[in-house]
Amino acid sequence: MEQHLFGNKLIGQFLGVDDEERAQAEEEARVAGKIKFAVNASFIVNFCLFGIQLYAAISTGSLALFATAADAFMDLVSSFVMLITSWLAARPSIYKYPVGQTRIETIGVILFCALMTTVAVQLLIESARTLGTGKTESGELHLIPIIFVCVAIFSKASLMLYCMTYRKYPSVHVFFIDHRNDIAVNSFGLIMSVVGDKFIWYLDPIGAICIALLILFSWISNAFEQIWLLVGKAAPQEFVAKLIYMSITHDDQISMVETCRAYHAGQKYYVEVDIVMDEQTSLKISHDVAQSLQRKIEGLGDVERAFVHVDYECEHNIHEEHKPLYDRKF
Q1: What's phi and psi for 260, nearest 5 deg?
Q2: In CATH, what number is assigned to the domain containing residue 253?
Q3: Which residues span the domain enclosing 289?
Q4: This prediction's pTM
């Protein structure tokens, strides 16, 4: 009974999937200006925040503020990396890279993860060295750097509230999460720096260690996630079920869906669908049905490429169509 209800729920979600995709595209076009403002304003605030954090860290020698400056630098450089990789991906060379260069975005994220892991490890080493050598003389934490950092945090909070309104759009959602995390990290770093300067000196390097560990673990996990996307991680079953429903309801001449695969090739999916049609169907009709289905699947926002294969029976072993991947003898 539960499986029946679950199946009905999935079918209810798939009905009108074309209208859903079209409505989503129209909605994104309608709010494109507001999304662009959120992205540009977030980039400007990240740039200003890095300058403020770097000034405060250098003027005081606070390791906790150096850690928050590293976090701000991470946001800034990630924006540049994503901008460059997106620019490269949008300019494909059909002869050198026949299927485009979109996977360079995933590679860019992995390279950036390696960079920030190195920065985090260096912060851990410096903080541990400070704890080992004991309290050292550093610049006094003046009121002006504190005010600057508080202004930056307030700006982040304002942008977070603005981005919250449009967080259903992927580009804005990334900045919403970024602002939310930065508010917590920068507030924690400022508190640890002030308390370490005025009361308990070792709280400053301890705060730096906590922030560095947060940077380290978050980017290592992000790197592994991106690596699995390049390896070819399978799509969720719900998405595969959506593809099957789209295929079987695409045309009355499709008698069944023999095989349906979806897997990552970077950020988006590659889809392989084998459909069965009557053996008396003309080549022209089978070609047109398969091509229109292929275009329909490629119209989904999460799909980069789709391949539709037409067969006339389903009695054969589907694993014989390609060379075996899992039965190799070593």
Answers
A1: -145, 120
A2: 3.30.70.1350
A3: 237-320
A4: 0.65
